[in-house]
What does this fold into?
Amino acid sequence: MDKRGTFGSRLAIVLATAGSAVGLGNIWRFPFMTGQNGGAAFILIYFACVLLLGIPGMVNEFIVGRHAQTNAARAYGSIGGKRWRAIGYLGILTSTIILGFYAVVAGWCLQYLYASIAGQLDGDPAYVVTYFKTFSSDALKPCLWGVGFVLITHLVVAQGVEKGIERASKLLMPLLLMLLLILVVASCLLPNALAGIEFLLKPDFSKVSSGVFLEALGQAFFSLSLGTACLCTYASYFKRDTNLLRSATQIALLDSAIAILAGLMIFPAAFSVGVQPDSGPSLIFITLPNVFREAFGAMPVVGYVISILFYALLVFAALTSTISMHEIGTAFFHEELHLPRRKAAWILTVVCSLIAIFCSLSVGAYSNLQLFGMSLLDFCDFLTAQLMLPAGAFLTSILMGWFANRQLVQGEFTNGGTLRATFFKAWFFSVRYIVPLCIALIFLHQFGLL
Ligand code: PFF
It folds into this structure.
């Protein structure tokens, strides 16, 4: 088998891993969750989840991956023994399902990018609603865009770690940041934008029901790509001298900053034209085209450009994330079945395309494709973000806090003693007690057992 890849520099490590973290989770899921769950109150709980559970959880997965330098299943096995490979399998399954439904929404973004360029999104509010409904309920088009997105992802991943993943991240991440900043400035300069900024900064605790905690936890894990074996797989390409705690903190802060910026891009614009931001997943496909049209009504060219930039931003953000989801399974099949990388990548591409097709049909032409009263797409989102990701992170914490060899763990945390162990004790305490306890409490509470 060919030599295993590694990321070429510290910057590449942060950009690629942040590329995985920053995605539709930040720009699509975070704003509508915030809109539905009380604005700043939700954000506070979300931040607490990132700091208390997210960063320690990221370091966990980094240690597993960097120590073993192999695919997720084998990596978990090498830390805890064969039985613990199960966490790796769970992660591979989770990320495959996520890639399936994520590609559907990413495909919508591609279609909207195309529609913005072609000037098709121009019309009154009723037209924009009909446009979305007609498009998403078409049997063929959304499936094709979704599968197309999986294929674009395939092309990058098949190129390998340095030539594919690292190169794409180095190009797309700076572009993404630039587009986001332009859009935030444009949005905050609109009349009455302050109301949107206030919504983001002023907590309304009356909207915080018990379910909000699990939602915030699921959102934090989803956004950090935690509990899917993604971080573990990327860490297997880290260099031996990478400071894991520092990298995790940088990535978590960057990811949270981008989520807030996405809020600052969407809410001021929405409030400026008097649109309520609680419209759920369709926020960026129905609400925003209207917002762009109304906000820049006096300058249609600016509205046209802004709309293109916005959907390009979504496509770039989604792509750096789908690459990471695809890589988890590709690395696994490549190494375990001794297949060439390109062939291994095809396995994932075919499976994820099938999931994408079923999810797409379930929100469109075949709305009777339901599970537990939800469309297949919503079900996959719920199953992964609120059950499988927390379960993966919970089990990893139990492994690292209670079963793994402590010297090995400390050695990885401190890079063989070359870094100061100042935070080791706090981190270890958190992984042993706080992370599993909090996840368990939130779970039990959500399912009415507490
Ligand atoms: N973190 C990505 C986002 O916020 O869009 C989603 C994601 C990527 C989830 C990779 C899981 C994963 F393995």
In short: Residues 10-446 form a domain with the Amino acid/polyamine transporter I fold (CATH 1.20.1740.10).
